[in-house]
Each structure stands twice: as structure tokens, then as C-alpha cells.
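Annex B. Sample input.
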Amino acid sequence: MREFDVFIVGGGVNGAGIARDAAGRGLRVGLAERGDFGGATSSSSSKLIHGGLRYLEHYEFRLVAESLAERDVLLRIASHLIRPLQFVLPRTVGARPAWMIRTGLWLYDHLGRGNHLPPSRAVELIDSGLGAGLQSSLRHGYSYWDATVDDARLVIANLRSAARHGGEIMPRTEFLGATVEGDRWRIELRDLEGSKTSCSARILINAAGPWVAQTQARAQNSPSSSAQIRLVKGSHIVVPRIHAEKHAYILQNPDGRVLFILPFEHAYSLIGTTEAIVRSPEEAREILPEEIDYLLAAANRHLARALNKSDIRWCYSGVRPLYDDGKTNASAITRDYVLRLEAHAGTPPMLNVYGGKITTYRKLAESALNKLEPWLRSTRSEWTDSEFLPGSDFGGQDASASLAQLCAQYPQLPASLLAAIFARHGSESALVLGDTQRLDDLGLHFGADLYEREVLYFLRSEWAQSADDVLWRRSKVGLHFSDAQRTALEAWFDRYVKQ
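Annex B, continued. Sample output.
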């Protein structure tokens, strides 16, 4: 039977971050995810690494300060996946008063100690390009900076780092349950083919996100926790690019919520998000017509050209498993994380992870390992803030210089293709391209900038097992594919898997 120091249930960003941190501390780590890694909440975010400007309204000063500090750490260690992004907040009649916005932005600037992004400032929208796509009546606003992220690839990068440090990563492996045997957990697992296996661990970490309660219930003899989660559904729509500039918008709505319009995948704009409390993850699988109406109406209050349902190219929904702090307003429920350690006499420790946001996943993982240190024999202390994630080690160069070097290394390949591969793999792009000399060496062309050679890399090095894994999580090329191209890729997977 395989023996681990730490076993993690859940392959979203929190589970992946904990696996990376634990493996790098010299611990024997196992992680199981019943679906694809990052296949639920972690790939359905608003694609932002941010301090959470609006959290200041709810007096979440500690969370905002920690998030801003983490934003800067992640911009450094994951720079091929996380990039600075300018936000413009137009001033609108009847919304938050100017003094409140200025105060919030001042706090935002100063809570982020060591902030290397430009400070906030008042801006004129007309003739500056910062009002592109907006109604001409919106003439004044504010500018501040945060960052955008490829959320699903951030999960994969953390898991690849965990595996490089010796972690055993198990995709499509369901956690069936755990029982106490002496001072260890005996863990029962089942793979995609239905085969059951067992392993043991000194510590069990429940990072199952929306399924945290169900996972804890499967751990026999584990004391029940009083902690609860609130499941908050968030939906997004993707439309053709609203403007050609590089900045994003944060828009104020009459209901007091804010809406993001972000540049997305070059040709598109991402609009989100809704917030609605749901009873189960199943309720959050698909966007509802009323959510589409809400997002379109909110955007159209500000846009020069009104959007229609026919403009929508893609939509997705996810569920945020937030810690239940007793608030009834979905927007006001804390985005902070809570770590509940169950460690009683005669029972090995179990750590349950509640809440959190993608921005603070690394700090959450670090806090989890520090909390468990009395039961661990780590050979290393905190370390994840200094080691680059796979793909972001440019050897002292910046990303643009590294991309130029890649183009010089593969002069026969189109620059647009190399830029797309670099955006996904960064400094490890050559691992994907190998000895490629010409376009034909990349194998079948499935559509957009996706070739067979990269798909094989996704399978062999990034645990992809289906067309959807590739189209929507290892990349976002599904946005650029026709129905026929999607069908062809699915057929290729069917043939390849059967071989």
C-alpha cells in the first residue's frame, strides 16, 4: 500500500497549491481529483488576480492587503500566466460618490505595500482611448491596476511543480472514503475504469471546494465540523471585442454590484459576473436566461453599441464555495479562507478548507502547511514565494525578450503561433516544440493555433484526457473552433485513447 505524509482530496487551485507547497517541503504527497484538474470552480473564475477593490466596502482590509501582496508575488513567479491589467472605472450619476471612490483607491494603493504597478489616478475618458466603446456621456473616471490570469493553466502549473518535487498526482480518481487505522488514514480510491485502490496518509486534507462537506462525510471517525459553506453561483458571457484598447472596465450598477468587462483571447471581451446563492453545485452548471439578461442590461447601460443575445459567443458558470459568515447578501459574504483543523486524541489530523479566492491560493496553501507543521517532518519551511512556477523562469530576461528568443529559435514557424504557444507554456515552449523545423512537423492542424504536437504534450505532461480538457482548460481555443473542428478533435481523442 502506498504511504503518504499528506493526502489531498481536490485538484482545484487550492489543492494544487497545497500539493506544491507540501511536496517542496520534502513531504510524501498524494492528490486525487475525480474529474479534470481545475474542472469546476478554478476554471470558472473572472480570470483576475486582484486585491478586491469592492471588498473595502465590507471592511475586509486584511483580505485586501493580503490579496494585494499575493498579486505581486504571483506576478513575479507566474509571469507567463499572470499579466498586469489596467482598469477604468467611469463615473456615473447615482453611483458611489467621488469621495468614496477616491478614498477606496487611496486605500487600495497604500494597502499594497511594495506595489510595483502604477498608482490609481483620475482620468478623462474622451479623446484618451480610455473611454473606447463607452457612451459619450461618460466623460470622467478613474484608473487603477490589477492583473489577469489564465486560471486553469495556473492549476496545471502548480500540479506540475508538485510532481517535479515528488508529489503523486492522480487525475480522474474519486475519493470513496477514509477510515482511521491507528495513527493513519486508510484512503479508498476508484479510477476512471472502476478499479479500486487503497493508500494511507498521516494527514488528510479536504480541498474539495463545493464538495467539502460531502468529502468530510466520507471520512469515517472524523469529528463533524460546525463550519458551513455558502455556494454562490457566478456566470459570465463572452462577446466580440468591445474595443481595441488594452484596458478593462469596472462598471457600477444600480443594485450596488460591479461588473467587469475584460479583454479576452484577443478577439473577445469577457463580461461578468452574476452572484446568486444556490443549494448545490448542480444548480450552477449552466447560465440561466435571467443571468444573461442581467449581464447584457448591466453592460448596455454603459456601452455605445448595445449588445444582444446573438452577440454571445460563449458563456460559463461556476460556483464559489464561500465560508458562511452569516451574511445573506451574496456580494457581502467574505471571500476569505478558513482552515478548520480536526485533530483529536486517537484520530489522525484532517484539515478542511473553506472559502478562499484564486488570488490567495498560495498563501492559503502556505497557511495550511504551517498549521499542520506539528504533525509533519518537513525538511524545508516556507518557499513557494521565491521559486518560479513552470514556464515563468526566463533566466533573468523579461517575457518579451524570451518570446523573441523563441521566435529566433523557430524562424520557420508563424510568429502568431509561437506567441500563442508561449502564452500557454512560457519558458517551456521548447519542450512542446522540440526539434520542429517547419509547420508540418507539428502534425495535424485541428484549428486556430492548435496542432497535434501540442495536444500530445497536453496528454503526456499535463494530464489531459478529453477534447474539452484541451479546448477549454489547457487552452481556450474552443472559442475559435467551429463545430466541425470540435467534432474532429473529439474523434482524434477517441482513436488515440483506444490505441
